[in-house]
Amino acid sequence: MLDRQQLETFATVLEFQHFRKAAAALNISPGAVSQRIKSLEASVGAVLLMREPTIVPTRAGESILRYIMAMRLLEDETLEVIRPGEFPPVNVAIAVNADSLATWFEPVSWQLAMQHIGLEIIADDQDHTLSALARGDVKGCISTQPEPLVGFRADLVGGMRYRCVATPEFVGTYLPRGMALPAILDVPAILFNRKDAIHDTFLSTFFGVDVGRYRKHYFPSSTALLNAVLNGLGYGLVPEMQIGSLLASGVLVDLAPANSVLLDLYWHHWESEPEPLAKISTLIMDHAHRSLVQEVSSS
Q1: What is the pLDDT of residues 61-95, one digit of tens each?
Q2: Pair (185, 245) in one structural domain
Q3: Which site in 122, 179, 278, 280 is 20 to 30 Å from 189, CA atoms measured?
Q4: What is the pTM of this model?
Q5: Per DSSP, what are the bridge partners of residue 191?
Q6: Quick one: 94 and 231 in the same domain?
């Protein structure tokens, strides 16, 4: 049977990313922290922490951390059933891609915050939120990855459609003949960050070949990216639900009406969910099914 004291010490080390800070939080010596971690590793027969260059869990450590999270949630659920409203809210962290957070997920987050939980939303690129779940940093995530981790399930919640847009003035200056190679390589494109692969996918689909180097500006916020496009700094791929009125009014122009990008999104969550996680999953999936495109992309 796993030792609860050792498990909590392991989780605290990961929370603070530092042995001495964990020791101070637990009111024990750094040596005692190291000894508890060693004893836990010995009991499971696996190395649980990588200490260089930063403290991160190994694969075995990720499994142990998920076990600790589940144990804490079950304990909180039990206490809430016995004595409702007398205990502090459960802390729940969720990883969400920035475009979802700026559009359909925002009203969901308001509903979640009204539950008896302490909500933390971690924003990242949609291709990378799953790593936060694997590390145990979050209890669920919105991701483009269809394959779940062991002990989890991945439910398709719908697709986000992206349109390649620019202002009419930008088109007149940089793209008077439309999108064409090699001219497009010298036209500034607006991307979210270096992990953003949507633009590369769009260009390779549009031109039928992989496009290498092209001019890029990075604006790591959905709102900032859209504002950069609106201010004529470049062209970019923006969620359709974010720009419907701008396209209808002519403020923005769709550069490739026949070549939108439909990005399938999945809600990754535990196979067996205690409350309040099960309620959170229901809220997220219900709202996503009403807000997102309910068709599977061809990619």
Answers
A1: 888 887 887 787 777 777 767 877 666 677 889 99
A2: yes
A3: 122
A4: 0.76
A5: 218
A6: no
